[in-house]
Amino acid sequence: MKIKDVINAIEAFAPLQYQENYDNAGLLFGHPQWEVTNVLLTLDATEAVIDEALARNCNLVVAHHPIVFGGLKKINGSNYVERVAIKAIKHDIAVYAAHTNLDNVRNGVCDMMGQRLGLQQCRVLVPKKELLKKLYTFVPHADAEKVRAALFTAGAGHIGNYSECSFNADGNGTFKAGAGTHPYVGQQDQRHTEAETKLEVIFPAYREGQVIQALLQNHPYEEAAYDIIRLDNAYDQVGSGLIGVLPEAMEEKAFLQLVKERFQTGCVRYTPLRGKPVQRVALCGGAGSFLLKRAVSAGADAYISADFKYHEFFDAENQLIVADVGHFESEQFTVDLFYNILTENFRNFAPLKSTIQTNPVNYL
User: Fold this and answer.
1) Assigned domain for 254 exists
2) Is residue 38 domain-resident?
């Protein structure tokens, strides 16, 4: 197995195209063609984790946080980022990060948080826009089903929890085949009218290459006519945060105690209690204060995230409870997510979970 195989499995689950524009997910060090000795899974690729990879014969470290986030102007070991880079490169250890792309997909980081609390009826809190495209094409009636099925296989036709979605309309297409052509129907230099099906399907923008390839390989015409447009529709399977409901409403203090236990944190910082039960819960892994207003507008009773600053707690304005569980604590189960992705794709392969505690925050 090569490093590219591991990358392909992770990015099939969380495409790089879904990362935020400020992020730096992907293969940071190493080469995709290297053969894998073993994989070490971690939240942070620290120096101690690289040492652990060496000791456990792992030449690939898969992390949630990119160790190189901003640009590196020098690599002389003056800080921990540069020291990690030097050690990884020196010992041929590849480092890969899946960060906000893993945050933004359904069944990703936020869903792992929701599962810890047993949330039900979950949905993305703020779905992303401009991630979808639509294909229009025109196919002879007899070939429409073949083309339609190929487009579905290539990843088109998903709307929410529905698959194989398309729109079809009958009409007539005209064309005149020029010199040197080999028309599927009609004759050269004669206008031909063909009964055709206009076929429309939606697809994630990152799958455009596969969709076009499927169209061209299965369309009977020598020159297939098609149009692709970008949609402004929100994509409800990709976006920031998550919101769901507890099986039963809980008293506030009992809820906060549950949060503390399930996220294994030494401290939960929270806003004043409101004297109301908690059932609708919003959450976001990592630094999530930017979603507070969206959690309020979605009717959440509580919002679980991390890295709230002092003045940002005031922004709750007693409309919900903010529970700050800590950055590491909110994302620690990402290692289990990586493990599940890889073991489901490679049945005879057992990646290793790092034993290094990378949380830089301690509690008394």
Assistant:
1) yes
2) yes
